[in-house]
Amino acid sequence: MAVPYICVTCGVQQAPTEGPPAVCPICQDERQYVPPQGQRWTTLAEMEARGYRNRIEEVETGLWGVGTEPGFAIGQRALLLQTPEGNVLWDCISYLDGETVARLRELGRVSAICPSHPHFYGSMVEWARAFGARIYVPEDDLPWVQWREESVIVPWRGRLALAPGVTLVQCGGHFPGSAVLHWRDGAQGRGVLLSGDTIMVAPDRRHVTFMWSYPNWVPLSAAEVRGVLRTLDGLPFDRIYGAWWERVVLSDARTVLERSAARHVARLLALPREPGPASRG
Known about the structure:
There is one protein chain. By secondary structure, this protein is α+β, with helices and mostly antiparallel strands. It has helices spanning 25-28, 44-49, 98-106, 124-131, 186-189, 222-231, 253-269; strands spanning 6-7, 41-42, 53-60, 63-69, 78-81, 87-90, 110-114, 134-138, 153-156, 159-163, 166-170, 179-183, 192-196, 200-201, 208-209, 211-213, 218-219, 239-242, 248-249. The chain has a single domain (6-146, 158-269), classed as Metallo-beta-lactamase, Chain A, CATH 3.60.15.10. The protein contains 7 helices and 19 strands. A hairpin with a 2-residue loop joins strand 3 (53-60) and strand 4 (63-69). Helix 6 runs antiparallel to helix 7 (253-269).
């Protein structure tokens, strides 16, 4: 029987096959990696048997985190945004079970699944089928979709309003279609970006960064970073939710973004910077 196998390294589910695929195209790309032990696969049934579960937790009013425990693959958590027009799942994860479906249905109808980029596709077709949702994929990233279920995939480009005050924005950079979700009314009306790792929140939560490959440590160029910032023109936001539970810029996020971008560009171009405390006499 054909089974939709899940890559253990990146967590992306493949189209159903009679046996495990030979390779994961996502991991063979230079932005990701195949571990020294080689390609490994699992399935949702195997994950359930091994005791995986999903943690579902409100992170602010109207916004819920959904992440798998123990951590799996890249370890991102998704975000569920509640809207009157239907709830939006930002990014996706690999694991899905009946308990998760029941809990999220209690929070309202999931109408849209919006992955920021191919590394966070997870088991998005399984999720779309479970909730009767559509998957919004930037046209530029369609070649990376491993399970091409045309009936549930909606291509888009540039900016796309999903609901009043909820807008998908294609930023580019990490992937050509790398995106963020702008939520105008989040952070008590000051505005929120859900950034995946299109804009990566740093561990200190006072900076962000921009990379072409995170595991292989390849930065974006100065021109690409400036391009990411231009796509956000006119969008107010004071908070950024990155791809992991603890990666959140809680306030003054526009300043954090601009300061971090300037630092990134300065280091790439070897521009002089204001000396830090450690270098002052």
